[in-house]
Amino acid sequence: MAKKIATREAYGNALAELGEIDKNIVVLDADLSKSTKTDAFKKKFPERHINMGIAEANMMSTAAGIASCGKTVFASSFAVFAAGRAFEQIRNSICYPKLNVKIGATHAGISVGEDGGSHQAVEDIAIMRALPGMVVLSPCDAEESKQAVFAAAKYDGPVYLRFGRLAVEPVYEEGKCPFELGKGITLREGKDVTVVTTGLMVQESLAAADILKSKGIEAGVIDIHTIKPLDREIIKRAAGATGKIVTVEEHNIFGGLGSAVAEVIAEEAPAKLLRIGLNDEFGKSGTPAALLEEYGLNAEKIAEKIEKFVK
Amino acid sequence: MTVKELELTACRIRRDILTEVFNAKSGHPGGSLSIADILAVLYFKEMNINPQDPQDPDRDRFVLSKGHCAPALYAALAHRGFFPTEDLPTLRKIDSYLQGHPDMRKVPGVDMSTGSLGQGICAANGMAMAAKLDGKNYRVYTVLGDGELEEGQVWEAAMFAPHYKLDNLTAFIDLNLLQIDGDVRKVMNPTPVDKKFEAFGWNVISICAHNYEEITEAIEKAKQTKGKPTVIICSSTKGKGVSFMENEASWHGSAPDEEQYNLAVAEIDAKIKELEGEING
């Protein structure tokens, strides 16, 4: 079995690698560089890593000022504080003037675990997606995270990157993720139902598809690493092919991937839809595995729900 | 530029503030009038800027942290040659590039989009930090309102700038002591402002916001101060230059009607005529 790596760790490593190539990269952190893993960049480029202290609002507006002088800025914190506490700074200082700031938000979703509901962002995709012009990326493993970081750096404008705390198995081999900003990736074909998923739920959905196969249900799986702009074509094709779409995300079912997919289906490609995610509830303390089980977001529970939906 | 010429420039800025807000039928005249002298000194004496090249990477930067006073900034920029003064009356109109609050993507010479209070000083910090990172010697100026000091984010920024020794940053506080709901000391008292910034590690200078020698001297002192940022606390009169608007909180965010506009402009025109006479001998 390949080594498990958290997407936040891949984020830090990607920044360190990117820093070599692009001297214009500046990284800000709010006293969490050991957790967001931007310390990997800090070790190599201490002069380009700025600790903002525990002050996320200031971090976002300062990032905007630095970016206005021609720099590419990655501003990092936990998703709850990045997207939540500093929302209006992201809106007015970064998105309104379309400045080149990338928000590296780690510890998203309930798989944060023991820290509990106060620290588990389940609404960040919804609020970032609603910001005009904001690109929203949610990679599933180390390789895809690296690709996402490099794509974000290349893109001129604000980008929100969502990473997890938990170490996860790789979906893609090194150098073999066909990442293209705004394009979904079909990981598995299936004639009965299509699972459209993102982030750490990609691995669970793939495992769920294995379980379903043993029960005679052929489930396709699509990895949506770019939630905005969404790959509408891949959703439309899936809707046409199977007529049944299931979205799976570590996020409230309101406003996230499920809602984005529902918009496409309602407007352009009628199909039956099931949204799997947090059912308008906060998370709580526990091990990541126990939480995913309790909230119905592990492979077994996902498979159960899909089986019921398909029949 | 001589003191008289600066005074004349500030009068013209004030006249245009009134014209902008009158034509828009909305906007913020009180706080715009109180910073006209500071902007005259910055844009016509101190700042290294080129209206022909508003994006020059080596230019000095200005961030209007109290973004609602856009009419003052636009008037200063127009008189400095960034865009035609004839466009000023289009402020806030549907087809105008002159947005209700400063928009760096639409208005030549605006270095940062502002309007949400507390964020501008942080962006100014970022610009000063970028200069340090790039080894450039441009300077960054920002103007905050005293009511704005009630935003917690200002104090995050106040901690940041001395921590990173941003001696290329100069912040002005427009201490006119009035905000929308009245006296700042009654709404949510930010005073003593000087002692707070001193405690945060800033070089603090207190001046009169309408005295050109004091403004110029304070900026010089800021340039000579190494290792820490400077804050210039400017005691000002809200509505300065229009007698019936002075020290009246009600003029924070409302436009004059035609009669009031004519009265206000007549007062400023008289001052302009007097100054032109003195300058031209």
Tell me what the structure shows:
- The complex is a heterodimer of chains A (311) and B (281).
- Chain A is α/β, with parallel strands linked by helices and 311 residues long.
- Chain A has 2 domains: 5-168, Thiamin diphosphate (ThDP)-binding fold, Pyr/PP domains (Rossmann fold), CATH 3.40.50; 185-310, Rossmann fold (3-Layer(aba) Sandwich), CATH 3.40.50.920.
- Helices cover 41% and strands 21% of the residues of chain A.
- Chain A is built from 13 helices and 14 strands.
- Chain A has helices at 7-21, 33-36, 39-44, 56-68, 79-85, 87-95, 124-129, 142-154, 201-214, 232-242, 257-268, 288-294, 299-310; strands at residues 5-6, 25-29, 49-51, 72-78, 101-106, 135-137, 159-162, 167-168, 185-188, 193-197, 219-223, 226-228, 244-252, 272-278.
- In chain A, helix 9 (201-214) links the parallel strand 10 and strand 11.
- The mean pLDDT of chain A is 98.
- Chain B is an alpha/beta fold and 281 residues long.
- Chain B has a single domain, classed as Thiamin diphosphate (ThDP)-binding fold, Pyr/PP domains (Rossmann fold).
- Chain B starts with a helix and ends with a helix.
- Classes of the chains: A alpha/beta (311), B alpha/beta (281).
- At the A-B interface, helix 4 and helix 6 of A face helix 5 and helix 6 of B.
